[in-house]
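Figure 2 data, in text form.
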Amino acid sequence: MPVNTSLRLAQHLSPAYIRIAGPSTKFVKYVDNEDKFGDHLSEDGNNVVVTPSMWFGINEWLSLANLTPVFGINDVETTRGVWNPKSTLPLLEISDKLNVTCYWQLGFGKNC
């Protein structure tokens, strides 16, 4: 589907929230370096790597569609049973730098 078509379809849903979260959240890694990840897969091939330009593109598309994103943050990584926010820091820094407007959700599932 061409981008213009998908954008027009999404615009008809607005204004709305779009939740991007779920079990696959643990396989998404955010990096602050474009150069190392040309194919957007981690070295082991198990994780999708989101670079700043990808993150900007996703959020720009959502903004053009007038959709407010709610992004799920990976809460699987823990230290002694407590969530370790260090894995999320690159995402938050990129979002701040790109002036991303969104909501954050820690975790996912029926309890969220």
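Caption note: The chain is about 30% helix and 25% strand.
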